[in-house]
Amino acid sequence: MAIQAVSGERPRKRTRRRVKHPWLRHAALIALGVLAALFLSIVAFRFINPPFTTVMIAEKLKGYTFRRHWVPLDDISPSLPLAVIASEDGRFCVHWGVDWGAVREALDDGGFRGASTIPMQTAKNLYLWNGRSYTRKALEMPLAYVMSFIWPKRRMMEVYLNVAQWGPGIFGAEAASRYYFHKSAAELTRREAIMLAVALPSPRLRNSAKPSARMLRIAGAVERRLPILAQRSNCVLPQP
After folding, report:
1. Which residues contact 98 (CB under 8 A, 6 or more apart)?
2. Domains in the chain, start-ordered, CATH in brackets?
3. Rounded Cα gap, residues 43 and 57, in angstroms
C-alpha cells in the first residue's frame, strides 16, 4: 500500500493587494493636510490678524505694492459696516455664512451675481482668487460656514473690512480712506462710507472719490436702505 507523503509546507498567508494607484492615497493625504491647515488658520484668525491674503499675493505678483494698515473695528466709523451690510449683505446678522434666499434669487436670474455674502467674500479674499466662477463659489460656501461658526459677527466684519480690496494694491478700510479721502477710517462721513461700500463689487473700476453716475444711483439706493437695515444690524455695533 502506497503511503501518501504529507507535505510539511505551511499554507501561504494571504498577502494584501498592493494599491494599484498609490497616487490616490498621496492625493488624499495632501487634501486632508490642506483642509487641516485651512481649519487651523480659521481658528487662529479668530484671535490674530491675517498677515496677508491670496488676493494680496496675486497683486504682488502683478507688480503692485499694496497698501494696508490694520485697524480694529472700533477704530472704523460705524457708518462703514452699516453701509457695507446695506450694499452687500442685508441679512448678515442673521445668516450663518450663506444667504440661501439670495442664492435662489440669483439662480432664478441666471447666475450667482448678488448672492455673495460678507463671509463668502471674506473667504474669497483670504483663501481663493478674484474672478467669477462656479468653482470658486462652491469653495466659498463651506469656508463661509466654518468661519461663521468659529468667528463672532464683529470679528467677521473686522477681518472683511481689513482685507477687502478697494483698488489696485489698496487693501482695507484704513488704506482706502486715506487714499480716497485723505483721512482715517474713523473719520469717514456717512456719505464717504457709502461710496466706499458701493465700490466693493468692482474695486478696480469704481473710484469712491470720483463716482460715476451709476455709482451715484447705487449709493442713493444704499442710503435709502440704511435706516431700515440699521435696526437689524446691531451685531456689528459696539456692545455696551
Report:
1. 117, 119, 120, 141, 144, 145
2. 26-236 (1.10.3810.10)
3. 21
